[in-house]
Amino acid sequence: MDFTLSPDQELLRDTGRALVREHCPASLVRAYAEDPSVADDLTARLSEFAGLVAGPAVDLCLFLEEMGAALVPGPFVPTVAAFAPIVAAVGANDVFESVAAGEATGTVWSPSPVELHAPAGDRVEFVAIAVEGGDICVTDQFELAPLEVFDLSRPQFDAKVFDAKVFDAKVTGDSGTIGHGSYAALYRATVAFSAELIGTTRWMFETTLEYVKTREQFGRPIGSFQALQHRLADMSLLYERAWSSVYWAAMAIDADDDEQHRAVHVAKSSASEAARHIAGEAVQMHGGIGVTWDHDLHLYMRRAFMSEEVLGTTAWHRARLADLVLQEGGQHE
Amino acid sequence: MHLAWGEEEERFRAELGAFLDAHAPAEAIGRGMEPETHGGIPLWAREWQATLFDHGWLIPSYPPELGGRNATDVQTLVYFEELAARGIPRALHFPGHAIVAPSLLEFGTDAQRELVPAAIRGDTVWCIGMSEPGAGSDLAAMRTRATLDGDHFVVNGQKVWTSYAMWSQMCMLYVRTGDTDSKARGISVLILDMTTPGIDIRPLRQSAGGTDFAEVFFTDVVVPKENLIGEMNDGWRVTMGSLAHERAGLWLEWTGALDHVFRRTVDEARRVGALEDEVVRYRLMALYEEVGGLRALGYKGFASYEKSGAAPEHALLKLATSELRKRIAQLTNEIAPSPENRREVLGTFAGTIGGGTSEIQRNAIARVLGLPRGY
């Protein structure tokens, strides 16, 4: 178990961070809600990194963490995090290769318990749609019905197949019917979204940390008060534990280790818990400004809440984890 | 970033595994890593510690004459992994090998360093005289005084919460040698023979029933001048050093201990037929996630320790593992109430107090986060 980043991995992370710092300011995220075409230039720049879909999960996660910290809108994240592993699992090789080459975008629609509502569906060429019986259609002939927008930078849709080439593979449905190859797709998608969520959480934590160091009340920075310091310490712990869980899961996937099944559930659940707690504390520590439309915090909270809901709620992941950990006969390690 | 260790590390693990298969006593296997002894260090544990030392498996990173085999940092990590997986403790008293030895190696004279092998092997049991009734978290407020009188110090005062004091031959004693209000600048460290006249040890019975620590009173206790560790009034540096050693050495044992107690919680839930209860399953998994996440965080801490020699993750892990330990015990007794599980709950409270309280850990984390000094 080695958490040391290689020089290439550090470079990848730094490159992603620099790219979104320059090309994805909060103003772009806000403008996207009114006119999604404002992110087309960003999407084009990011497509150069679409090849990550064919590489290790750890590398993909490092890059997506940076996307999450900047709330990158548009089709890039749904494409590399969810669409790519699903099309790979169902054997849609031509589509996968187009995605990896940065030439095609796609999203995924799947129902509960691992739901994804075609995030950024209005900006993609393909949708992978779970249909009756658990089959997956990968199609460019689809119809969208917008859902109520909560995450302003990532609208969601109900998607319906127009005309589809149906691939014989099962991805969703009752947990008992998921085939092995498709499992891997779901694991990779789940850990990828968890990594993005960790980045979003990191922004909320770091922004709050900076705020309490500068905001003064009673003649001193509020971050000097122990009542806040100890809560920030607990936030740090939750964040660090969740971060470690996400990358542990990514490493387990890359190693095709038996641990991956449990580790992915732990990753999603821990990332969600950290996001939820840190979002609430971030608002409280910002005080009044934290509940205004003008402050960016609510943009991040909206993304965090939606990311917690997609690809399985915490309750679902814990129930699945319990099935794996608590098997009879004491096989819980 | 990768999950698996290389061939060399796995060879190291196999060698250790073969040694453990051949030598680990039945009492040690699956016992878990927690140090509570409840009334004395058992003979098997003393012998096991000595056996580990003699085979170079007690502190693998040390040279053979100090109970090791010059292992690398990664090999040391593999060593802890394997012990934790088997629930085998190294030793049931840690001050000698985890605090005294590294402190003497760093700050001691040649003569003082000769005490190190026996301290590690456990032939000499050591205690650490640090906390006082008026100096707990505020360690710099300590008042136990040592007055230099020719070729010796005369010590008067009182220590408390001194773990293992009643079974110790030696004590690493923190004393005030500066002015009364000299705070951290007036502290020195002495090596004290516990058979010296004037020492009164009064064991403290803990709420859980055991007796692992004591009050220690000093009345005109004579300590030779050459027993001073490091410079006069420079003991704070030794204090910080020894606390750091404790933290660096123990975190993997903490997460290993959590694995062990969580397995026991699941067994208890199974025993009372609660494993199919949805609420029980949900709450067990919430704890499982924490245990697994902290283990991963430990590895992340190790990576930063290897890279920079410092790991801020240690304060997080001390805080998190001791707090989680309490909650696991409480859930265990909630699911499967029993006299043993009730006692276990009581036994976990000291973990968030000793070795730096949870509140002191949070203060330390706040420093790491760059927050201004607190009020």
Q: Which CATH top level class of the largest domain in chain B fits?
A: Mainly Alpha
Distance between the termini of chain B: 40 Å
Number of strands of chain B: 8
* Total helical elements of chain B: 11
Short descriptors:
A: alpha+beta; Butyryl-CoA Dehydrogenase, subunit A, domain 3; two-stranded antiparallel ribbon; 56% helix; B: alpha+beta; Butyryl-Coa Dehydrogenase, subunit A, domain 1; Butyryl-CoA Dehydrogenase, subunit A, domain 2; four-stranded mixed β-sheet; 11 helices; globular
Offer a concise description of the structure.
The complex is a heterodimer of chains A (333) and B (375). With 333 residues, chain A is α+β, with helices and mostly antiparallel strands.
How are the elements arranged and paired?
The complex is a heterodimer of chains A (333) and B (375).
Chain A: H1 7-23, H2 26-34, H3 40-46, H4 57-69, H5 76-90, H6 93-100, E1 106-110, E2 116-117, E3 126-130, E4 135-139, E5 142-146, E6 157-161, E7 165-170, H7 180-214, E8 216-217, E9 220-221, H8 226-254, H9 260-286, H10 297-309, H11 314-325
Parallel strand pairs in A: 1-3
Antiparallel strand pairs in A: 1-2, 3-4, 4-7, 5-6, 8-9
Chain B: H1 7-23, H2 43-54, H3 73-86, H4 95-107, H5 110-113, H6 116-121, E1 126-129, E2 145-149, E3 152-163, E4 170-176, E5 187-193, E6 199-204, E7 213-224, E8 228-229, H7 235-271, H8 278-308, H9 313-335, H10 339-347, H11 358-368
Parallel strand pairs in B: 1-4
Antiparallel strand pairs in B: 2-3, 3-7, 4-5, 5-8, 6-7
Helix pairs in contact in B: 1-3, 3-7, 4-7, 7-8, 7-9, 8-9, 9-10, 9-11
